[in-house]
Amino acid sequence: MNAILNRKSLLLLSLLTFSGLLKAETWPPKVPFSYALGMAQYVELCSSCHGKWGDGSDQGPPLMHVFYKRSHHSNASFHRAIMNGVKAHHWNFGDMPPIAGATEGDVKSIVRFVRWLQDKKGIK
Fold this sequence. Notes:
CATH architecture: Orthogonal Bundle
Oligomer: single chain
CATH class: Mainly Alpha
């Protein structure tokens, strides 16, 4: 009985996806022009540690993680981390130093891009 239900569920999911009623999100997403500046600044200032798409690296944690959702880390906490650095508190990567050369405008654009990217990942 379970095998029949599983096959029916799989068939229904396939039909919904094929028909366009249920769209599978591709990753990485196509970045709209309005987020391009934030993406460029993120790639320049953040991606060496946090990964090209916020998926982390051996240098820093993934920003596409529920630890960084809005209700746990506000935009202001991202701002402080970029401008002032932050003590390690969720991961074992060590303290994050301030990002040399980052401006207030950079931070605003970067945070806006990261939040958009999180939305695409379903991290709210």
